[in-house]
Amino acid sequence: MYAVIRAGGKQYKVAKGDVIQIEKVKDSGTLEFTPLLVVDDKGVTNSQKSDLTGATVTAKVLDEVKGPKVDIFKYRNKTRYRRHTGHRQRYTSVEISDIKLRKSSSKKSTTAKSKEGTKDGS
Length: 122
Hints:
By secondary structure, the chain is mostly beta strands. 13% of the residues lie in helices and 55% in strands. The strands form 2 sheets. It has a 4-stranded antiparallel β-sheet, with no helix packed on it. Strands 3-8-7-4 form a 4-stranded antiparallel β-sheet, with no helix packed on it. Strand 5 and strand 6 form a beta hairpin. It is elongated. Mean pLDDT is 86; it is low at 105-114.
């Protein structure tokens, strides 16, 4: 089973036990995400809002790390113009502990009853 979640303006494909780095969050302990898409073990895709109303992805915060340094260098020829800056993004490492998809058994039972009524010819 895997899910697609949104964190920090980006989307991540996650499964149980995955460790991902998302943009820094202030919370420590556990996080809950609302999935955008869930694919279960049978290959059934759940992406409609009604299917995902009770679905949650829980994650445990491991630690905070720094990403690679990005150097920005601006230069204009023959004008003695040079600017050098840098940036280092901070990330939070999280481990996906569970993916829960709420099962709606009422839909299955009503469709099964309606199909049985058509088989009898009544």
